[in-house]
């Protein structure tokens, strides 16, 4: 990735107009993007659960197919899709 591409991506992600004096590696920028995406997903999930007509515990119990009080990846995915 060229420095121009990194600068463009940085401006796009941070909504910055200028990048004078900003030095950031591609790895660091990628890490920041993933952290931002994770935070957004958590916020959207929390909002969806709070707006859900059904209590969360009821949904959790319905999707915990082996009743071990933990959700496997597939169970969690189905729960989130339902919410």
Account of the protein in words:
The chain has 83 residues and is mainly α. It has a domain at 25-82. Helices cover 67% and strands 0% of the residues. The chain has helices at 3-14, 26-51, 56-63, 73-82. 0% of the residues are buried.
In short:
The chain has helices at residues 3-14, 26-51, 56-63, 73-82.
Keywords:
83 residues; mainly alpha; 4 helices
Distance between the termini: 38 Å
Morphology call: elongated
| Series of secondary-structure elements, N-terminal to C-terminal | HHHH
Instruction: Specify the biggest β-sheet.
Output: none
Extract low-pLDDT stretches.
none
Supply the number of helical segments: 4
Give the mean pLDDT. Answer: 78
Provide the fold topology.
Blueprint: H1 3-14, H2 26-51, H3 56-63, H4 73-82
């Amino acid at each position: 990735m060229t420095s121009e591409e990194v600068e463009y991506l940085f401006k796009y992600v941070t909504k910055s107009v200028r990048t004078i004096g900003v030095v950031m590696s591609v790895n660091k920028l990628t890490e920041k993007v993933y952290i931002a995406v994770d935070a957004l997903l958590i916020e959207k999930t929390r909002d969806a659960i709070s707006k859900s007509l059904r209590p969360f515990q009821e949904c959790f119990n319905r999707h915990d197919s082996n009743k071990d009080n933990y959700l496997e990846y597939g169970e969690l995915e189905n729960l989130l899709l339902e919410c």
